[in-house]
Design goal:
2 copies of one chain form a homodimer. The first copy, chain A, contains 6 helices and 2 strands, in the order H-H-H-H-E-E-H-H. In chain A, about 30% of the residues are buried. Helices cover about 60% and strands about 5% of the residues of chain A. In chain A, strands 1-2 form a two-stranded antiparallel ribbon. Chain A is globular. In chain A, helix 3 crosses helix 4. By secondary structure, the first copy, chain A, is mostly helical. The two termini of chain A are about 40 Å apart. Chains A and B meet through helix 1, helix 2, helix 5 and helix 6 of A and helix 1, helix 2, helix 5 and helix 6 of B. The first copy, chain A, binds a DNA duplex (30 and 30 nucleotides) through helix 4.
Chain lengths: ~160, ~160
DNA sequence: CGACATTAGTAACATATGTTACTAAATCGG
DNA sequence: CCGATTTAGTAACATATGTTACTAATGTCG
């Protein structure tokens, strides 16, 4: 079945695509595995992943708008909107109409919201430590640098 | 090795969780971005992502069962089942009852299925080359090694 | 053999997520 | 100022994905 592919002059005969060696796929799969693990932590606290992400963004910078959350995470408007509504219903975030712009909701954490975030953050950081423990220090540095470059690479091309 | 960051005994002044620096999140987000890009390629060929994954697995090893696909990808039974049904309807894969075990579907690519796979594989590999072009050779090596370790790490803990 | 547990796959159901269209508020250009 | 355009957010709709329960075929062990 593998026909003898003649090497083109100047062109290399390409490697074939094997899923386990295809980098984008590997990263997606790895992310999927991480998500699964972390989802347990969130679920134990009655949070979905989008809710957790919103919580995390609002925890970092108070008075954020939903649109800021959209800009900083891989979630679209609607997902964020729903997560915010749910977090408000559970009294973890407050939604206040911004005075400057009354279209905007200024989001902030309630006391329980902050406590919840801190609790999950601790577990999440433990998880991260655990993950990264398989890498030596050189690998961590290079891995981090490579991630940064890849992030910049995909961010570059505008949608 | 994961609890040695706190400087004050008893005081938990751990680093705080910042989403953009949280490795699992970064990987998920990066994967999301990649998926988005690649999805265009598949969509141009009228394929969904699960369909593409099934196609890729079957392309590598003929006569695979749906359960093998489940084992090799981050998809559950049902997602694979649907993708296979759809691929069969489009005449890209064949489903034959295995003789040894008549519960099992032996999957294989049709001629058009193979052609489709080859076509997409070329585009996908181009995409990968493009991505990785931002990394120098040392970074690629270390990045690959780190990925392998992380993959092994998450595979280790059984569900 | 023959009840019982296990496995591959699917169907029916529930939920989650994305898409399009809309509303209210703000900004812009005259 | 005032109509036209943009923006933040949501609602209504469509689709996709996961969950549970079921069927058919094997395997197991008395």
């Amino acid at each position: 079945m593998s026909s003898t592919v003649a090497k083109e002059p100047g062109g290399d005969d390409r490697r074939s695509l094997i899923l386990e060696r295809f980098t984008p796929y590997r990263i997606v799969a790895l992310g999927h595995a991480f998500s699964g693990r972390l989802a347990r932590v969130y679920a134990d606290q009655n949070l979905t992943i989008p809710e957790w992400r919103v919580l995390a963004v609002v925890a970092q910078a108070s008075k954020v708008a939903a649109r800021d959350v959209v800009a900083r995470t891989p979630m679209d408007k609607m997902t964020v909107s729903r997560a915010v509504a749910s977090l408000e219903a559970k009294a973890f975030v407050l939604r206040a109409v911004s005075e400057n712009d009354r279209r905007v909701n200024a989001l902030s954490l309630t006391k329980t919201g902050r406590a919840l975030f801190d609790r999950i953050a601790t577990l999440a950081l433990d998880f991260e430590d655990d993950l990264l423990s398989v890498l030596d220090s050189e690998e961590r540095v290079v891995f981090d640098r490579a991630l940064k470059k890849l992030e910049a690479g995909v961010a570059g091309v505008s949608d």
